[in-house]
Amino acid sequence: MLNQNGIGLRLIPQRVGQPLQVQWDDPTDARDWILNNRSVTVSAGSGEYVDAFRTSTGRVIRIDGQLRAGSEPESISVSVPNPGNYLISKFREALLNAGIVVNDATVVKSTPSTKDSMELAAIDSPPLSQLLVETNQESNNIYAEALLKTLGKVQSPTTLNAIDSGVAAVKDILAPLGVNPALYSMVDGSGLASRDRASAEALVQTLQAMAQSSNAQAFRDSLSIAGTNGTLKNAFEIPLFKDDYLLKRGPFLALFPFRVI
Asked: Which is nearest to 78 in space by CA: 19, 150, 144, 26?
């Protein structure tokens, strides 16, 4: 995984009527893709939205949407079609730039290390408590998938299917904590698969288990606070009516977390 398996783009408003300027996070990506820029810069009173996706055929990235003239640039990304080969190609490019010739590079399913293997480089991961903040607050699906696969590999080092091993590890960990494995179905880490299912009872059991865990505070700190941060940052925002009705109903609204805008 490199840069969350995304090709990063920065969209910059121009003069009204002009397309948004597109900047690549990694300029070398530009040589591998064709941009179909259908975006536009709009006036101050117009709405804003942007979208980018790659076509199913060919190496074309299509950009739609609009930003107001003078507004802040917007960052967006497009998924990489083959993450393994993308990472290897960037690694090979970095080696070539450093004067290390690499004739060929490819990704294979399994290359077991031997006793004679020598570590060339390593990167230390941030602690899990930090990774959980990005995963939970921002609903980062690729982090969730990576964490599940890592768990599977830690629990079963020789596994060739880290997803299945990760799911098995989750059940082995949660069951002793009182979470009934019969009450949920899990096939990936993000919950995007159609076969992912969890009953309300399983969710409550999981929250109860986390509340009693020695890591309870780290778990709480990873969750979004409605109206404050993460994907719930804009939740419970209530617009103010002209007659100040909401302000007059203060005792009622005090029961709910919200921000007046």
From this structure: 26
